[in-house]
Automatic annotation (TrEMBL):
Keyword Transmembrane helix: no
GO molecular function: enoyl-[acyl-carrier-protein] reductase (NADPH) activity
The entry's keywords: Fatty acid biosynthesis, Fatty acid metabolism, Lipid biosynthesis, Lipid metabolism, NADP, Oxidoreductase, Transit peptide
EC identifiers of the protein: 1.3.1.104
Name of one Pfam family that matches: ADH_N
Organism: Planotetraspora silvatica
Name of the molecule in the record: enoyl-[acyl-carrier-protein] reductase
Family of the protein in this entry: Belongs to the zinc-containing alcohol dehydrogenase family. Quinone oxidoreductase subfamily.
Keyword Signal belongs to the record: no
Residue span(s) of domain Enoyl reductase (ER): 11-327
Gene Ontology process terms (BP): fatty acid biosynthetic process
Reaction it catalyzes: a 2,3-saturated acyl-[ACP] + NADP(+) = a (2E)-enoyl-[ACP] + NADPH + H(+)
SUPFAM superfamilies (UniProt xref): GroES-like, NAD(P)-binding Rossmann-fold domains
């Protein structure tokens, strides 16, 4: 098996190496899975730098999620899984930047045969995050408004797809015009390019008297919360799912207390680690069906083979990408 190992903290190519070794023997509850595709996500580089919820021990097998096919099953893992296409859940117990990987059977769910491999490979984290962002904090009704920063990112794209399907209106915020165009095409009702000037006034004007019931923020820092709070309805929710600025959001006290705007943080991996198996299977079956139907369709900028890992790692960390970078094991090649 070939796989990418993290050998020291950092996010440049020198912190990683391509490792080739014979397939590890299967334990009774294990599966051997041949990967079709696995994405490189921002969180992978938070992890490789030591800034993530999971701390790596070296050498650490990289890659949180992916899709593949079961080649072999251990004696207690269920022979019926052999030959099936499976999603590898982002538990961080196995590395998916690999052509083959040994996975405990509890860390996979079966997915359909016909959906696009790249899209399925990205299902475990971002669409699940979008699902929880939209369902956990407020009851959204058709016609309600949500606000969304990082609207052009993969989480944002999944939020837009799921919100539109529920008839919820979207005010997307991005940091450059090309991204705004992309988000308009995805179906956001209003898109604002945040240039650091008067964000709150511009959001208020764009909403034209309407209020946001939910704000989903990936930028962090005091500004976004302070600027958007006046446009959030009393009793509404503000949820942090990331902090690209490295700063926590800060909700002004009067908005928090007098208008009871609640502030939350979401880490979808806690759900993957702790949710009952039936719930995991149900949610991923629903999301996989939406991939199949083309409702969930994250932009892809490039795919690489494993031995091109240096280019892939650099590309995935390039600012202003127009989509995801993935390792693809049957069809490497840059798509744009
Ligand atoms: N809490 C959770 O459970 C959870 C789950 C999934 C993801 N996340 C986090 O959510 C974030 C987005 O993930 P993703 O997969 O959607 O990423 P992605 O597809 O790579 O998109 C990255 C987004 O971040 C924006 N961005 C990058 N640096 C920025 C900065 N310094 N200031 C403002 N915006 C910046 C990008 O804007 P440009 O296009 O303009 O560069 C783009 O909108 C990551 O931090 C990821 O770790 C959290």
């Amino acid at each position: 098996m070939s796989r990418i190992l993290l050998t020291k903290l950092g996010s440049d190519a020198e912190s990683f190496r391509l490792d080739d070794e014979p397939d590890r023997p299967l334990g009774p509850g294990d599966l051997l899975v041949a990967l079709e595709a696995a994405p490189l996500n921002p969180a992978d580089f938070l992890l490789s730098n030591g800034w993530y919820a999971v701390q790596p021990e070296f050498p650490f097998a990289m890659g949180a999620e992916g899709v593949g096919r079961v080649l072999e099953a251990g004696s207690a893992a269920g022979q019926a899984l052999v030959g099936r296409r499976v999603l590898i859940l982002p538990t961080y117990e196995q590395g998916t930047w690999a052509d083959r990987v040994v996975v405990p059977a509890r860390n996979v769910v079966i997915v359909g045969e016909t959906a696009d491999a790249l899209q399925l490979a990205m299902l475990g984290i971002n669409p699940a995050t979008a699902y929880h962002l939209l369902n956990r904090y407020v009851a959204l009704r058709p016609g309600d408004w949500i606000g969304l920063t990082l609207a052009n990112g993969a989480v944002g794209q999944a939020v837009i797809a799921l919100a539109r399907r529920a008839g919820v209106k979207i005010l997307g915020i991005v940091r450059r015009e090309e991204a705004a165009e992309q988000v308009r095409k995805l179906g956001a009702d209003v898109v604002i390019v945040d240039d650091g000037e008067n964000l709150g006034d511009r959001v208020g004007q764009a909403l034209d008297g309407a209020k946001l019931r939910l704000v989903l923020d990936g930028v962090g820092g005091p500004d976004v919360a302070a600027q958007l709070a006046p446009s959030i309805e009393s009793g509404g929710a503000f949820v942090a799912f990331s902090a690209m600025t490295g700063q926590p959001p800060v909700m002004p006290l009067a908005e928090l207390v007098y208008r009871e705007i609640s502030v939350h943080g979401l880490y979808a991996i806690n759900w993957v680690w702790n949710a009952p198996r039936e719930e995991i299977e149900k949610v991923y079956a629903e999301l996989a069906e939406l991939v199949e139907k083309g409702v969930l369709n994250a932009s892809v900028e490039a795919t690489y083979s494993l031995d091109q890992y240096r280019e892939a790692i650099a590309h995935a960390q390039r600012p202003e990408r127009s989509g995801k970078v993935l390792f693809a094991f049957d069809r490497p090649g840059t798509s744009s």
